[in-house]
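User: My advisor asked me to double-check a structure prediction for Glutamate 5-kinase before group meeting. I don't want to rely on an old file, so could you generate it fresh from this sequence?
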Amino acid sequence: MSPSAFSEQRLPPWRRAVLKVGSSLLAANGGGLSTDHAQAIAGFVNACHAAGRQVVVVSSGAVAAGRAIMREQPHDGAEMAERQALAALGQARLIGFWQGLLDRQVAQVLLTHDDLRNRRRYLNARATLSALLRHRAVPVVNENDTVSVDELKLGDNDNLAAIVAALVDADVLFIATDIDGLYDADPRRNPDAQPVEVVSQMTPALMAAAGGSGSAVGTGGMRTKLEAAQRASAAGVSTVLFNGTRADVLADLARDALRGTRIHALRSRVAVRKHWLQNAPAEPGGIVIDEGAANALVEKGASLLPGGVITAEGDFRRGDMVEVLLRGEDGSERVARGVSQYSAADIRRIARRHSREIESVLGYSYGGTVIHRDDLMLV
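Assistant: Sure, here is a fresh prediction for Glutamate 5-kinase from the sequence you gave:
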């Protein structure tokens, strides 16, 4: 194994990460899945678990797995339905593949970009992933290729991984590639290409240097990885590109020694979150609270609980940005703003109730808070 052209650099401390693994690292020749590279990748994830860290895996490979099952292989240019059938056949095998390699229970999570663009579905996905991590499971996320035509055609799991990194408040996005990292030119075609070890800001020159796909199996190239890094950076998440075919690189990465490319985030996650909470437009109406709840929000940094809510005004829905109002003799005073976990109609029903009564009143529960403190900003 030839030495990496990249020198070793230390990664800053991190607690939660998203790891994206593409088809080129998992697919066997002729179809199916191979442990040739996956064994070392899983070893990295298991080492992270042993260190008390959390990892969400975004994994391609369902179509490759399906090829080993379907007797009659789709021809080149086959209808999308044929490729979607491969994805449907292979998805269960892909999850079983990861379960056999990882040291914790694996959970399948299938998403599309539409799921994450819709605010209510976004909140549901976030709550599910948070619960899985809390229960020490390993979410293995993939695009719902069986129904998402554009995503399957574009092979855009790199960008999906960046969205998931923002969704779960990850500290870092790891993208496993089949080359050592980012170069200033395509190293497969230009022997004088120089490694780019640190990227402080994405530039047009870097994007232009990114080539196409390096594999007949994977459909995403270095450019999609840089686009994903750019998206993650805007969300306050740094990105690491490394060679997932090298067991030594993965072993070093488990001890926070990177031989690859690190792409800095533009701003901290806290700053990005604060900016969004401050500037996102609020729905008409709001949540009216009592003085005790206002004091808890301002002085203790607490979440908003239903017991401190007087009523809800307007007709907003779960996932909407709303104002939190303290009603006084001279009118209403804005105390905070945040993302409501319940609709206005639901809040009017659970106002003044204890959190444990929510399910008995509504018949369901999205948790014991009306607005969680992570989704709330004082004004």
